[in-house]
Write a structure and sequence with these properties.
Blueprint (H helix, E strand, L loop, with lengths): L2 H10 L22 E5 L6 H11 L4 E5 L5 E7 H6 L2 H13 L7 E4 L14
């Protein structure tokens, strides 16, 4: 390759870069975080997830069966549902998770909710 061709290729080829983010955290029991979405053809079904969650951290998660083309159940941390009801949280989770998974997947999600409150008082 001549230097003329080499410079031509370098100028016309798109520059490709990869960015990587690594999130390290303490291992948790159960090995799930705020939400788990169970695909319709996942190797572990909603009942197996229920047994796991009930055995490892009883009363901390709520399992919700859903009508969705990719997922059949959602497991949501109850403390999270105090901040945002399932009717508001689930559509957002489903929309984002279906973009990166399929029916065979079990998707674990970390959800951070920040509530902002502004109040005015009469002076």
């Amino acid at each position: 390759m001549s230097s003329k061709t080499g410079s031509y290729l370098r100028g016309s080829e798109p520059l490709r870069k990869a960015e990587m983010t690594i999130r390290l955290s303490e291992f948790e029991i159960p090995p799930m975080q705020d939400a788990l979405l169970v695909g319709k053809k996942a190797p572990i079904g909603p009942e197996a997830v229920r047994r796991m969650v009930d055995a490892l951290s009883p009363e901390q998660y709520e399992i919700i069966r859903i009508e969705h083309h990719v997922f059949e159940a959602a497991v949501l941390k109850r403390s999270l549902l105090k901040l945002l009801p399932a009717e508001k949280l689930l559509p957002i989770l489903l929309e984002e998770c279906e973009r990166v998974s399929d029916e065979q997947a079990v998707v674990k999600a970390q959800v951070n909710i920040v509530i902002q409150v502004n109040r005015a008082v009469d002076l």
